[in-house]
Structure formats: C-alpha cells, structure tokens
C-alpha cells in the first residue's frame, strides 16, 4: 500500500509537470525577447558659427518651437542691414525713373527755354532791321548773313529746350524701367537670403521630444551642418524583436502587441509596424538554446506617443503577441 501511494504521488507530480510544461510552451510561442531602439534626430544649423547660447539640457523634454541653441550672428546681421539698404536704394531709383525729372529740374529747363525764346525774338527783330538796312546800303551783306545765322541758331535753341522739357515730363524708357524692376527683384532676393541666413543662427525644435544629448558646449565653434543636439521624438521610439519562421506568417501590420519591461508598472501597448521580408540567423543579443540555430525574422513595433517616454534605447523588453 505505501508503494501504491508513492506511485500515485509520482503520477500526480508528472501530470503537474506536464501542465506546467504546456503552459511554458504556450508562453514561449507568444512571448519574444527584444530591445528598445531610438531613431535619433540630430539638430544642426546649415550655417557655421560660435555657439553663443544653449537653452536646453540633457534629459529635458521640449515641445515644438522651443528655442534650443543660437550661434553668433554678427556677420549675418550686417549682411541683412546691407541688403535692406540695397532694396531701399533700388526701389527709390525705380520710382525716380518712373516719375521722370523732379520739379526743380523742370523749372531749370523752363527758365532756359524762356531765355532762349527771348533771344529768339530779339535776334528775329534784328534780322528784320538788318534786311531793311541792306536795301538802303546801310550794312554789308556779310553782316546780314551773320544776323540771319544768329536768328536761326536762336530758333533752334528754342526747339531743343522745348523738346527737353517734353522729354523731362515723361517716365523712363520701357527697357530702362524693366532693367530697374529686375534690379529691385534681385535686391529683394538678396534680402530674403540674408534674412534666412540670420534666422538659421537661432534654432528651435521642429518636433517635440526628449533632449537625449548635447554635443557642443557654449563658446565652441560649430561647423555648418554639425549636429548640436541629439533628440528623440516619441514617435521615433520602437521595439525590435525576432520571431521564428513558423510564427511570422501569423503576424500582420497594425496588430496589437504588449511590451513588458523590468520596472514598468504595467505592460505597454504597441502596434506592429514592420515585418522583415528576409530571414536571418538568430542575432547574438538573443541567447536561447531553442532558437540559436533557427532562422528568424526581424519585427518592429511602435508604442503610442504617450507611452514611448517609458521606454529607453537599449532597454531589454519582452513582447507578447495578443
């Protein structure tokens, strides 16, 4: 009888172990080891300069539009002022060409015309007198010829000044106006470029997220395009894990997953966003006697934006298929 009881206890123990093994097997089929990855955004300025201000610190979470750093901008500010003055000068010249001569300049031409008209009348009268004198022998033919030339010159001068006054009232020529209009546009474009270069010296966050690291200190020279801040937006946090080829067919984009991590108060919901099209050998970060020699497929999932800050790049996690 004692032997029978012992046999029964052994049978119950084996049954319990079978149930546990079954539970472990089921858990192994739906749970996979993985790790957190971050796709960093490197914030830089396209213009070189000395770092004057750094307004964020590592570990800080910033929102879109938050000022992050500023480079010295003495040269860019001077270039902007120069471009502004060039625009003003080009616009003034365009207006001057369009309106013709100024009123004082017109008054000068009118005065010259009045003087020439008076000379014309006087010389015309003198010519009439000399022609009468020639008939009675009072002057020579040479003197009359000189008087006639003077009268003709006076009349020509009146016509010249009359034409100058008419032209002075007209706007500039079409081609001249077109050329100056193009000059105004060119100076405007130069001002836009100067404004842009000055704006690039102060950089704000284009996306909210975690300031993962700062790569320069105040006072250091920053080459153009060199990142000053390393950011991690919530949408750039993802979980990467690997599943055997026998499981990959049951997964689909948009599928809901649960992420378990040490220290997390609760599992984090995630959405499957990528399934690798190629198989590969088990990567060295996964140590499993069952899958070491098997082909696996890489899977990526993204947590929601509000839960992403709970995960950290490099952190090991466990992904559970729902």
Summed up, what is this model?
The protein has 322 residues and is an alpha+beta fold. The chain has six helices and 14 strands. It has three domains: 30-39 and 234-321, Beta Barrel (Elongation Factor Tu (Ef-tu), domain 3); 42-73 and 199-232, RNA polymerase II/Efflux pump adaptor protein, barrel-sandwich hybrid domain (OB fold (Dihydrolipoamide Acetyltransferase, E2P), Beta Barrel); 80-196.
Q: Which percent range describes the beta-strand content? A: 25-35%
Largest sheet: 6 strands, antiparallel, barrel
* Beta strand count: 14
Number of structurally distinct domains: 3
Strand order, main sheet: write it out. 1-10-13-12-11-14
* Shape, principal axes of CA atoms: rod-shaped
SSE class: alpha+beta
Could you outline the blueprint of secondary structure elements for this entry?
Blueprint lengths: L1 H29 E8 L2 E4 L4 E6 L6 E2 L4 E5 L2 H26 L3 H33 L5 H28 L5 H26 L2 E3 L4 E6 L6 E2 L4 E6 L4 E8 H4 L7 E5 L7 E14 L13 E9 L12 E6 L1
Helix pairs in contact: 2-5, 3-4
Notes on the structure:
This protein is α+β, with helices and mostly antiparallel strands. The chain folds into 3 domains: 30-39 and 234-321, Efflux pump adaptor protein, beta barrel domain (Elongation Factor Tu (Ef-tu), domain 3); 42-73 and 199-232, RNA polymerase II/Efflux pump adaptor protein, barrel-sandwich hybrid domain (OB fold (Dihydrolipoamide Acetyltransferase, E2P)), CATH 2.40.50.100; 80-196. The protein has helices at 2-30, 74-99, 103-135, 141-168, 174-199, 245-248; strands at residues 31-38, 41-44, 49-54, 61-62, 67-71, 202-204, 209-214, 221-222, 227-232, 237-244, 256-260, 268-281, 295-303, 316-321. A 6-stranded antiparallel beta barrel has the order 1-10-13-12-11-14. It has a 4-stranded antiparallel β-sheet with strand order 2-9-7-4, with no helix packed on it. Helix 2 runs antiparallel to helix 5 (174-199). It is rod-shaped, with a radius of gyration of 46 Å.
